[in-house]
User: Which sequence fits this backbone?
């Protein structure tokens, strides 16, 4: 208990601006990653806005199918993306020759994940038939999921490439690559969904094709960075392609729980969304709109979380645990300030966030969806604070290698704190949409407290994901 109280005092004290582990360093690393994840957030937001203009059924289908695809790819992308922690710890330890090999182990995971997703494509109609959504929604869900599965391999590989450059602290090029690929995706979205410039109108299928094509663009741009002399810190990185079985196993050991964390988190919310679908298309569409709006807050904090993992990894690799802790505390302060601001905006300006959805939609059909979505944004105002806390402290734990605890905590809460209570509320007690969202908010609170207590106990400071350096001759 004293340890937790001591950590709480550390949390509320003012951090320092300059120097290692201060706000300035956290911002220097995180701002490009925040902008990168914001670009991805914008991509999702505009994509679903286009689909809301296309039809309400397309909008209702976009989140279940999209989240299911992200859920299945997240196991592999989360594992491959954990390359960033390996690279950051190798970088902090000054062992630059191992960084390229770590990246390539992530590429091999991408090839495995891509193959498995190709096998899922024929089964998409049967998968979405299980959830009992309306026939038009099911058809759109299947089309979107199938097209997204085509881009699984490059999507996962881009996580490994990105992990390399974020691990060495070169986050600005990652940002620009995200901007370019996002611009490509949004342009292709508009062209293929609505059939512009001579292309056929493809609707949901076009949205999926645009996203998969953008994943290929990501990979091409990342590979190009390695051909800038000296830019990658290790000019031999692309040539270190051989399978290193010991390193591959180590990446699986620490990275797979991280990938499972994403999978479990997303699976929990996928289950949440699918259960909400039984309340009706209006409730499902309102939930989709609310979650889509929340990406404005959530995705930037994911970028901050990536930065905290990198800094924790770097300072632990350099044997400087106090600076790893200081970076985490600075990250929490920044997250709390941003999430508080966004929560106030959700409460005070809900119509502003819903405006993009209303512009191209049928006013009469969208009006009841908008009214419910405005109320759901009030729940998100509180949930966002807890979510920011989750992201920062779980990211700090992952940067050290404490991925099994993160996976265990999320598994327990996703099952017993979210999916089962929501399922019971809907199927047995005929609860409405607001009761369901109350359960989700409490889930966020308990999860935040669990990660904070684990962080405050400090066991993570002794953890490392990289092997010991061989003795010098």
Assistant:
């Amino acid at each position: 208990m004293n340890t937790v109280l001591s950590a709480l005092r550390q949390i509320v004290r003012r951090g320092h601006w300059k120097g290692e582990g201060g706000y300035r360093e956290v911002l220097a690393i995180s701002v490009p990653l925040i902008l990168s994840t914001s670009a991805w957030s914008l991509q999702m937001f505009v994509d679903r806005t286009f689909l809301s203009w296309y039809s309400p059924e397309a909008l209702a289908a976009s989140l279940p199918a999209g989240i299911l695809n992200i859920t299945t790819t997240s196991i592999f992308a989360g594992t491959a993306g954990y390359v960033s922690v390996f690279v950051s710890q190798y970088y902090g330890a000054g062992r630059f020759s191992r960084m390229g090999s770590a990246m390539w182990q992530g590429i091999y995971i991408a090839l495995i994940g891509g193959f498995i997703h190709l096998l899922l494509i024929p089964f998409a109609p049967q998968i979405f038939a299980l959830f009992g959504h309306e026939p038009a929604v099911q058809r759109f869900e299947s089309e979107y999921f199938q097209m997204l599965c085509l881009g699984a391999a490059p999507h996962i590989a881009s996580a490994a490439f990105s992990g390399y450059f974020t691990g060495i602290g070169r986050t600005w090029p990652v940002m620009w690559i995200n901007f370019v690929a996002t611009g490509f995706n949004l342009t292709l979205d508009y062209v293929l969904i609505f059939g512009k410039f001579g292309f056929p109108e493809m609707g949901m299928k076009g949205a999926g094709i645009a996203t998969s094509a953008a994943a290929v663009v990501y990979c091409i741009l990342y590979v190009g960075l390695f051909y800038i002399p000296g830019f990658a810190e290790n000019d031999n990185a692309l040539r270190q392609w051989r399978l290193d079985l010991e390193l591959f196993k180590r990446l699986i050991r620490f990275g797979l729980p991280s990938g499972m964390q994403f999978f479990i988190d997303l699976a929990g919310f996928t289950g949440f969304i699918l259960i909400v679908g039984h309340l009706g298309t209006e409730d499902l569409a309102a939930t989709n709109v609310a979650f889509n709006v929340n990406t404005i807050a959530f995705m930037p904090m994911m970028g901050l979380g990536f930065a905290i993992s990198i800094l924790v990894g770097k300072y632990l690799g350099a044997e400087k645990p106090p600076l790893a802790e200081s970076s985490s505390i600075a990250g929490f302060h920044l997250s709390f300030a941003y999430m508080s601001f966004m929560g106030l905006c959700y409460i005070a300006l809900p119509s502003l966030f819903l405006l993009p959805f209303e512009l191209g939609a049928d006013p009469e059909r969208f009006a009841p969806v908008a009214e419910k979505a405005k109320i759901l944004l009030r729940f998100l105002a509180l949930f966002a604070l807890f979510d920011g806390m989750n992201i920062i402290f779980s990211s700090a734990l992952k940067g050290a290698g404490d991925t099994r605890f993160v996976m265990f905590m999320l598994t327990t809460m996703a099952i017993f704190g979210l999916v089962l209570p929501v399922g019971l509320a809907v199927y047995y007690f005929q609860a409405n949409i607001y009761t369901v969202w109350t359960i989700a908010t409490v889930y966020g609170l308990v999860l935040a407290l669990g990660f904070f207590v684990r962080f405050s106990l400090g066991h993570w400071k002794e953890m490392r994901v990289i092997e010991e350096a061989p003795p010098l001759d």
Summary: The chain has one domain: 2-462. Residues 11 and 329 are 6 Å apart (CA to CA).
